[in-house]
Design goal:
This protein is mainly β. Helix content is about 0%, strand content about 60%.
Length: about 140
């Protein structure tokens, strides 16, 4: 039995309960398939008056580097467990600037709430709260 959370499910951001940096989207949904040490994520963001944007990536939770093309740029990501949280560290060169992201994922004891929190990175302080809307508990 694993001591780590499984993030598999479909999730909708509770934007009122989240602390986002930058323009606030109308809706964010995330579909996660977490199969053993592989995490596959598809996130869809809908902005006011604009088309939905979709970003997808996959990463191993064993710390191995993965390269994904996200929004037209090459992202290098690594994921590892830090206690009960999954830390996904990513780097990308965007508009001539190297950006770094440290996204800590955790799930509530009842499996109905997913938290993604940025710490010590370019989005420091951003916290997105997602409610489960489908998938495994």
């Amino acid at each position: 039995m694993s001591i780590h959370s499984n993030f598999t499910g479909t999730w909708r951001a509770d934007l009122a309960a989240s602390k986002l940096r930058g323009p606030i989207p109308q809706e964010v949904t995330t579909s996660v398939i977490h199969d053993d040490s592989l995490l596959r994520v598809v996130m869809t963001m809908v902005t006011a008056g604009g088309p939905a944007s979709r970003m997808a990536f996959e990463v191993s939770t064993t710390g191995e580097a993965s390269v994904n093309t996200v929004l037209g740029a090459a992202w290098v990501s690594r994921a590892r467990w830090v206690g009960p949280e999954l830390l996904i560290e990513s780097g990308v060169n965007h508009a001539g600037r190297q950006m770094r992201f440290c996204d800590y994922w955790s799930i509530s004891d009842d499996g109905q709430l997913l938290i993604m929190e940025h710490r010590g990175d370019d989005l420091e302080g951003q916290i997105t709260r997602f409610d489960r809307i489908g998938g495994a508990d």
